[in-house]
Design brief:
Layout (H helix, E strand, L loop, with lengths): L4 E6 L4 E6 L7 E7 L5 E7 L4 E7 L6 E2 L8 E5 L4 H4 L8 E5 L3 E7 L12 E9 L10 E6 L5 E7 L3 E8 L10 H4 L8 E4 L10 E4 L7 E7 L3 E10 L4 E10 L16 E4 L3 E6 L2 E6 L10 E6 L8 E6 L6 E5 L3 E4 L8 H7 L3 H7 L4 H17 L3 H8 L6 H9 L5 H12 L6 H24 L6 H14 L5 H6 L1 H10 L3 H10 L3 H10 L3 H10 L3 H14 L1 H11 L5 H8 L6 H16 L6 H14 L2 H10 L10 H10 L3 H10 L3 H11 L1 H8 L6 H19 L2 H10 L5 H4 L13 H40 L23 E3 L5 E3 H8 L5 H20 L7 H18 L8 H5 L8 H11 L1
Antiparallel strand pairs: 1-2, 3-4, 4-5, 5-6, 7-8, 8-9, 9-10, 11-12, 12-13, 13-14, 15-16, 16-17, 17-18, 19-20, 20-21, 21-22, 23-24, 24-25, 26-27
Helix pairs in contact: 3-4, 5-6, 6-8, 8-9, 9-10, 9-12, 13-14, 14-15, 14-16, 15-16, 16-17, 16-18, 17-19, 19-20, 20-22, 21-23, 22-23, 23-24, 24-25, 24-26, 25-26, 31-32
Family: Belongs to the VPS18 family.
InterPro entries: Clathrin_H-chain/VPS_repeat, Pep3/Vps18_beta-prop, Pep3/Vps18_RING_C
Main location: membrane
C-alpha cells in the first residue's frame, strides 16, 4: 500500500491480514515478486544510495531480509515452476534473480534455512551470468522452464533492447547452483539474443500455459514501447532456439491509425486466445488469432475509469486458477472471462487452421460440420484428394454429390478411400448400402490390379502392395456377411477381370473350398485339388469330389480317404466310388478303401460288402474265398447279401464260392451236389459241417456215397468211404451197387456191421435188466412209505412262529419241519402267485363251511367224500413240499437275507 503496509488476503476465509513492512524505514518498495503458487514473496526496496531485498511466505507474519544483500536493485525473478517444489512451502527451489546491473544470480530461499544459518533465509547465493559485459544493463524480465519431463531447460531474459535465450541439458539436478550448468556452455560461445523494440521499464515476461500445465507453455510476450511482442514456443534443441517466429502487436494500429499518438499500456496478461492490455482508464482485449490486419484485432475496449476507485494500476493472472485480477488505486477487481472462444473458431476457419477450429467446436456438431466441409473443400481444391476423401466420408452430405466429384478424377485412390471410410461408418442394418459400396470397391480394386497386370507390372512392388491392400479390405469384419451373401456377384466381378489367383485366395479365405477344388479339376490340376482336400478336410467335399478325383488319381485319393478314418461315412463315400467299368488299377484302389472300411472301421453296411464282392469277382477272385470264409456260415452273421453274391458267382462260374454261399443259405444238398462237380474232397468237407443234425449229415454223406459208387463203380473206394463216415453203414450203400456184384466184396464190411449190431443188442439187454431192478426197488419203497408215520410230541413247535404245534391245525414233513396251516400260508404268500394264494383261501373257506354244515354225527357219504376232496386239494397246494427244503427255498438262493430297504437301518443300529 502507499504507507508501505503489506496486505495479505485469504480469499477462502475472507480474511485480510496487515504486515507492517517498512513504515519507519527510509527504503521505498520498488517491486513485488510473487511466485506462481502463491507461497513465496520477494520485495525489492531501495533509495538513492542503496537497495535491499526482503523475503516472506504465507506463514510468516513479518518480512525477512535476504542475507545482507545490499547490491544492485533486483528487477526480475525467474521462479521455479516445478510441482515438486510446490508440495513444500518451506523452500523456493532454485530461482534466478536479475538486477539492474545485468547480473543473473541463482539462489534458493526458504524458512527451513533460518534455523541453521542464524536468521538467514538463503541456502546459497551465486552470480551465474552477466549480460552487461561491463556496462550496466538492467534485466527487465527473466523466466526459466523445463521442457516436459526431459533434462532440457531453457532461460529467457529481456533487457531494454534485447531478448536473450539460453537452452541446454541439466544432467545433475541436485548440483547447486543448478542452472549454472546451462550458463557454463555460453562462457565460450556468444549468447544468442534477438533485437527487439525498446522494452518499457515496467514490463515483465508473461507466459501462457495450456491447461495450467507448467511443463508446456504455448507462447510468451512482453511490452515494448511500440507494441506487444508475442512469440509461440517452438523448442529446437539442435539450433538452441526457443521460438522460431514472433509477432508485434503495434499500439498505433489498435485504433486504425499509423501515427505516434498512442499510450503505452501499463501491464498485460495472456488468455487462451487474447492478450489483455491495461491502460490507465481502460482494458483492451486483442486477438492473438486474428488476421494480420490489426484493424480488426481489437475485440473489446472496456472502460474501468471511475473517480471512486482511482486510476488503474495493474492487471495480472493467477496461473493456478486462471483467474485474472485487475486493481486500481482503491479497488481490486476479479476479471471474469465468458465464452472467449465463441468467435475464434471462425477466425481459425478463415485462416485455414482447421485442426484448431475443430478443437474449439468439438462439442458443437453443427459447427464442427462446417469446419469439416471447409477443410474437405480446401483439400480438394489444393489437390489433396485423399485427405479430402477421408473428411468427406465423415460428413452428413449428399453421397452422390461427393462421388461425382471424385469420379471425374483420373486417380481412383481418393474415391476408394472415400468409399472405404464411408463403409466403416455404416451400421450393420444398412445392408443395402454396405452391399453396394462393397461391390463397387471390389470392382475398383480388381480394375486397378488388371491395369497393372496388363501393363506388365504385375510383379512390381506396386502390384504386391495393392494386392495386400485388397486382401486386407476383404478381411474386414463389416463386409464378411456381405461377401457370404453375394458370392456369385463377387466372383463374376473378379472373373470379368481375369483375376483367377485372387478368386482362389478369396474362396480359400471364406472357406469356399468346393469352388476352389472345382476350379482345380477344371484346370486338370489334380495335385492342388488333393492337397487342398487333405489340408481342409470337410466331409461334404469328399462326398462331392471323390468320384472325379479317384478316376484321375486313384492311389492318392484313396490314401486321403483312408487318412480321414471315422470322419467319413463309408456309405456316402461308396456312392462316390461306384464307377461303371473301372480300370483294374482303379478297381484295386476302390477295393483297398472297401477293405479298410470293413476291417478297420467295422462297417457292416450290406451295400459296402456287396460292392466289395462284385469287385472281388471281377478283379481279384483269390481274395473272394478268404472273405467268404472270414464272414462265416451263419446267415444272420454275414454282412453281405448271400443271394446277390450267389447270383454273381453263378454268372462267373465260381463253383467253390457257390458252394460256400449255398451253405450260408442253408442249401446243403445243393451245396454237396455242386461240390461233387468240383471234387469229392470238397463234397466231404461240406457234408461234415452240419454236425448237430445227424439226419442231414447222413443224407449228405449218402449223396456222396451214391456219387462215388455210381460214378466210379469202385468198391474199394466205397469201402474206404464207409471208414471215413460214421453215419453210413454197409446196408445204406448196398442199393447203389450193381446187381452183378457178389457178396464177397462186402464180406468184411457185413461182418463188421453184424458185430456192431450184436454189441448194440447186448447193451440194450443190460439196460433193460437195470431198469427192471430199479422199478422193483422203487415199488418196495412206495409200499414201505405208505405204512410210515411220525411221532409228534406235545413240546413240538411250529418252525415258523415257534409256538406249540398242536394248538392249531398243522402240517408235518418227512424232513421234520412242522408248520401251522396258517403259518405255512403266510410264509408261502410272498413267493407264489396270487392266484395260488386265492385258491388256498377259497379251499379253506369251503372246508370250514363243510365242517360247519356237517356237525351232525350221521353224515352222508357224499358230504364226507366232498370234504375229503377239498382237503386233498388243499394238501396238494400246501403240503406238496416243505417250504424250507423244497424248490421254493432253492429258487431264493440269490436273494439277500436282509432287504435293501432295511439294510441301511440295520447297519446304523449295529453301528
Amino acid at each position: 500500500m502507499v504507507n508501505n503496509v503489506l496486505l495479505r488476503i485469504n480469499l477462502k476465509q475472507d480474511n485480510i491480514e496487515e504486515i507492517d513492512t517498512l513504515k519507519t524505514s527510509s527504503l521505498k518498495v520498488k517491486q513485488l515478486f510473487l511466485d506462481p503458487f502463491g507461497e513465496h514473496l520477494l520485495i525489492s526496496c531501495g533509495n538513492i544510495s542503496s537497495s535491499q531485498l526482503f523475503y516472506a511466505t504465507k506463514q510468516l507474519s513479518k518480512l525477512k531480509p535476504v542475507g545482507k544483500y545490499q547490491g544492485s536493485e533486483i528487477t526480475s525473478v525467474a521462479w521455479n515452476y516445478d510441482y515438486r517444489v510446490k508440495s513444500t512451502s518451506s523452500t523456493t527451489g532454485p530461482i534466478l534473480l536479475g538486477n539492474s546491473s545485468g547480473a543473473i544470480i541463482e539462489t534458493q530461499l526458504g524458512t527451513e534455512f533460518d534455523r541453521f544459518f542464524q536468521g538467514s533465509v538463503v541456502q546459497y547465493w551465486k552470480e551465474v551470468f552477466d549480460i552487461s559485459k561491463g556496462q550496466p544493463i538492467p534485466i527487465i524480465g527473466l523466466q526459466y522452464h523445463r521442457v516436459g519431463k526431459s533434462d532440457l531447460f531453457y532461460i529467457l531474459a529481456i533487457t531494454p533492447t534485447k531478448l536473450y535465450q539460453f537452452i541446454d541439458f541439466i544432467f545433475n539436478k541436485d548440483e547447486r547452483p543448478m542452472l549454472q550448468q546451462i550458463f557454463n556452455n555460453y562462457l565460450t560461445i556468444p549468447e544468442r539474443f534477438y533485437e527487439v523494440p525498446t522494452v518499457v521499464k515496467h514490463s515483465k515476461l508473461h507466459f501462457y500455459f495450456l491447461n495450467n500445465d507448467f511443463t508446456a507453455p504455448k507462447y510468451f510476450g512482453f511490452l515494448t514501447e511500440l507494441g506487444v511482442f508475442v512469440a509461440e514456443i517452438d523448442i529446437n534443441k539442435d539450433e538452441k532456439t526457443i521460438f522460431s517466429s514472433h509477432e508485434l502487436i503495434e499500439y498505433s494500429r489498435l485504433y486504425g491509425r499509423d501515427d505516434d499518438d498512442f499510450t503505452v499500456p501499463l501491464s498485460m496478461t495472456f488468455t487462451r486466445y487474447h492478450v489483455l492490455l491495461l491502460f490507465p482508464e481502460r482494458v483492451i482485449a486483442v486477438s492473438l488469432v486474428a488476421p494480420a490486419d490489426r484493424n480488426a484485432s481489437q475485440v473489446m475496449d472496456e472502460d474501468y475509469c471511475s473517480d471512486s476507485y482511482g486510476r488503474l494500476l495493474n492487471i495480472t493472472k493467477d496461473l493456478m486458477t486462471g483467474t485474472i485480477w485487475l486493481y486500481a488505486e482503491r479497488a481490486v477487481f476479479r476479471y471474469k472471462i465468458n465464452k472467449e472462444d465463441r468467435h475464434v473458431w471462425k477466425v481459425y476457419l478463415d485462416k485455414g487452421m482447421f485442426e484448431e477450429a475443430k478443437e474449439i467446436c468439438i462439442n458443437n456438431p453443427h459447427r464442427i460440420n462446417q469446419v469439416l466441409v471447409r477443410q474437405a473443400e480446401h483439400f480438394f481444391n489444393s489437390k489433396q484428394y485423399e485427405n479430402s476423401a477421408l473428411i468427406y466420408a465423415n460428413l452428413n452430405v449428399s453421397f452422390e454429390e461427393i462421388v461425382l466429384k471424385f469420379l471425374h478424377l483420373n486417380e481412383k485412390k481418393p474415391i476408394k478411400l472415400f468409399l472405404m471410410k464411408k463403409l466403416h461408418g455404416l451400421n450393420s442394418q444398412d445392408y443395402t448400402k454396405i452391399t453396394m459400396i462393397t461391390l463397387w470397391l471390389i470392382e475398383l480394386f480388381a480394375n486397378e490390379l488388371a491395369v497393372l497386370r496388363n501393363s506388365k507390372q504385375g510383379k512390381l512392388q506396386e502390384y504386391t502392395t495393392l494386392q495386400e491392400s485388397f486382401k486386407q479390405f476383404l478381411s474386414t469384419s463389416i463386409i464378411q456377411d456381405c461377401i457370404r451373401k453375394n458370392w456369385e456377384s463377387i466372383y463374376d466381378i473378379l472373373a470379368s477381370h481375369g483375376d483367377v489367383s485372387f478368386m482362389i485366395w478369396l474362396a480359400l479365405e471364406n472357406q469356399d473350398y468346393k469352388r476352389v477344388i472345382q476350379h482345380y479339376l477344371n484346370e486338370e490340376n489334380i495335385a492342388e485339388a488333393l492337397t487342398l482336400l487333405d489340408n481342409h478336410p470337410f466331409s461334404e467335399l469328399f462326398y462331392t469330389f471323390s468320384s472325379d478325383l479317384v478316376e484321375k488319381a486313384p492311389a492318392q485319393t484313396v490314401s486321403i480317404l483312408i487318412k480321414q478314418g471315422q470322419k467319413l461315412d463309408p456309405l456316402k463315400v461308396i456312392n462316390a466310388l461306384i464307377i461303371p467299368n473301372p480300370s483294374e488299377r482303379l478297381a484295386m484302389e476302390i477295393i483297398r478303401y472297401l477293405e479298410y472300411s470293413i476291417h478297420c472301421l467295422n462297417c457292416h453296411a450290406e451295400s459296402v460288402h456287396n460292392y466289395l464282392i462284385s469287385l472281388y469277382i471281377k478283379y481279384n477272385k483269390d481274395k473272394l474265398m478268404n472273405y467268404l470264409k472270414l464272414q462265416g456260415r451263419e446267415i444272420t452273421a454275414v454282412s453281405y447279401s448271400p443271394e446277390f453274391a450267389l447270383r454273381l458267382c453263378r454268372e462267373h462260374q465260381l463253383g467253390e464260392a457257390c458252394v460256400q454261399l449255398s451253405i450260408v443259405l442253408g442249401l446243403w444238398e445243393a451245396a454237396v451236389d455242386l461240390a461233387l462237380t468240383i471234387s469229392v474232397d470238397l463234397a466231404k468237407t461240406t457234408a461234415s459241417l452240419p454236425n448237430n443234425n445227424i439226419e442231414l449229415s447222413k443224407k449228405l454223406w449218402l449223396k456222396i456215397a451214391q456219387y462215388v459208387v455210381k460214378q466210379n463203380n469202385d468198391i474199394e473206394q466205397a469201402m474206404r468211404f464207409l471208414e471215413e463216415c460214421k453215419f453210413i453203414k454197409i446196408e445204406d450203400i448196398l442199393p447203389f451197387f450193381p446187381d452183378f456184384v457178389t457178396i464177397d466184396h462186402f464180406k468184411d464190411a457185413v461182418c463188421s456191421s453184424l458185430e456192431v449190431y450184436n454189441k448194440d443188442i447186448q447193451n440194450l439187454k443190460e439196460e433193460m435188466e437195470d431198469a427192471t431192478k430199479s422199478a422193483e426197488v422203487i415199488r418196495s419203497e412206495i409200499l414201505s412209505f405208505r405204512n410210515g408215520y411220525m411221532l409228534i410230541q406235545p413240546s413240538n413247535e411250529c418252525s415258523s412262529c415257534h409256538e406249540q404245534l398242536m394248538t392249531k391245525a398243522f402240517y408235518t414233513f418227512p424232513c421234520s419241519h412242522c408248520f401251522h396251516a396258517e403259518c405255512l400260508i403266510k410264509e408261502m404268500q410272498p413267493y407264489v402267485d396270487s392266484s395260488i394264494i386265492n385258491t388256498i383261501k377259497d379251499l379253506q373257506n369251503q372246508l370250514s363251511t363243510l365242517y360247519q354244515n356237517n356237525k351232525d354225527i350221521s353224515q352222508s357219504l357224499e358230504a364226507i367224500n366232498r370234504r375229503d376232496k377239498v382237503k386233498e386239494s388243499l394238501d396238494k397246494l400246501l403240503a406238496a413240499e416243505c417250504f424250507f427244503c423244497g424248490d421254493i427255498m432253492i429258487s431264493l438262493i440269490d436273494k439277500p437275507f436282509i432287504e435293501d430297504a432295511v439294510f441301511e437301518k440295520i447297519k446304523q443300529e449295529w453301528e
